[in-house]
Amino acid sequence: MTSNQNDPAASARGSQLASDFTVSLHYDRRLYREDIAGSIAHARMLARQEIMSAESVASIVEGLQSIESEIAAGDFPWRDDLEDIHMNIEARLFDLIGDAAGELHTARSRNDQVSTDTRLYSKGAALELVGAVRAAQEALLQQAEAHMQTVVPGYTHMQRGQPVSLAHHLLAYFEMLDRDAVRFSAAAAAADVSTLGSGAMAGVPYPVDRQSVADELGLDRITANSMDAVSDRDFALDLIYAASVCMLHLSRLSEELIIWSSNEFGFVKLGDGYTSGSSMMPQKRNPDFAELTRGKSGRVVGNLMAAMTTLKGLPLTYNRDLQEDKEGLFDSVDTMLAALGVVRGMIESATFNADKMRYAAESSYVLATDVADYLVGKGMPFREAHIIVSNLSEQAANSGKYLHELSLAEYQAASELFDEAVFDITVDSSIAARDVEGGTALNRVTEALAAAKARLVASRHDK
Ligand code: ARG
């Protein structure tokens, strides 16, 4: 092996490799707005505190504003030889305004800078995700409202269990997403804090006014400990965790849509925009969007594991490992936003087949619990009733019948407590009987729908 010292080409390759390895520009450039906002707020504070002259702050702010326009317009002269967004903006500021650019780094380090940038980004992203969750909930609400009286088998262990209304089933997902919105709001609150003034890690030796910088950035508060401030990425974990749980919910919903849209079930037809054909099999309507939502959930959960693993061994304070916080964070947010949009569209454009769902409920043993409850109504302990109806179900199944196809004589052979009224048990009576808070009876689901709507309306005023 040739050593780099003796081989200029290898040495050049080596230093190229080393700089590629350390750059973050290709992903942290998307923080340019946050970075410029942070710099402007910092510069204005320095001027207010008479740490910087009025002339310097004026030219810094003007320079930063034109940099923002250049980047937005795609005209910015990116320099790949500079490691990150912060250094690119700083270098460009020198080009534009000269030496005054150097004053911007008074009382600031890239450590507190990048941490505030990432918090600003996370807060904005988390709030945007709350909005996207609410929009998906709205779609669920609309379908629920349209299917208050649609009957579908509810499943346990993927076996038909008890009949429910489709509205009740869809509102279960509404609840999951409601908790997601709460988690995203909490992630926004966790990020809502300025670290500027923490410097590299020990604080800064200037009379800065930290809270005024936070105020200008629209951040709620300032960090309490400079060492924690530059090394803490809990807010990013909070956001990726919230996204992971929300992706799990969307993945479960997608799994049901995949199963329900199979020929075997035929409960739902997904909108044309959300299926694709097969290059070989002309009959196919593959649920690709649902499958990809399910598939992408794995990557978001992976991002959470990656971020936690990166953080777990870090001593105080800033360590370069922290630069690895962003790709998984950005990817989680991008994936989450896209998946919420897809799920919203899938729900909006789905056509549910009420006849097939009702048929699946009726051609099954989903009324067995109700038959047992009937015996309980006649005074039998539930456990005893359970055994009798379990035997009856088996007996019916062996003769190719459903429970409601048994004769009164067959019922009475199992228990004398049965009379004609057992034939009044239907999927509709079963649903109507679950008249309990949180149950599937029509009046309860009507209440639940109204409460869900009210929560959505209230959430609009929260902002
Ligand atoms: N690119 C770095 C990051 O994202 C910026 C902070 C660098 N700080 C330092 N002391 N090298 O973490």
Structural notes for this entry:
With 463 residues, the protein is mainly alpha-helical. It has 3 domains: 83 residues, Fumarase/aspartase (N-terminal domain) (Fumarase C, Chain B, domain 1, Orthogonal Bundle), CATH 1.10.275; 184 residues, Fumarase C, Chain A, domain 2 (Up-down Bundle), CATH 1.20.200.10; 99 residues, Orthogonal Bundle (Ribonucleotide Reductase Protein R1, domain 1), CATH 1.10.40. Helices cover 63% and strands 5% of the residues. The protein has a two-stranded antiparallel ribbon with strand order 1-2. Strands 3-4 form a two-stranded parallel ribbon. It has a two-stranded antiparallel sheet with strand order 5-6. Helix 4 crosses helix 5 and helix 10 packs parallel to helix 12. Bound molecules: arginine.
Model regions low in confidence, pLDDT < 50 over at least 5 residues: none
The major β-sheet equals:
2 strands, antiparallel
Domain count: 3
Number of strands: 6
Q: How much of the residues is beta strand, in percent?
A: under 5%
Which geometry do the CA atoms define?
Answer: elongated
The Cα radius of gyration reads 31 Å
Give the CATH topology of the largest domain: Fumarase C, Chain A, domain 2
Query: Structural class of the helices, strands and pairings?
Result: mainly alpha
CATH class of the largest domain: Mainly Alpha
Distance between the termini: 63 Å
CATH superfamily of the largest domain: Fumarase/aspartase (Central domain)
Strand order of the largest sheet: 1-2
For the record, the CATH architecture of the largest domain stands as Up-down Bundle
Tell me the helix content.
55-70%
- Distinct ligands: arginine
Number of helices: 18
**H-E string:** HHHHHHEEHEHEHHEHHEHHHHHH
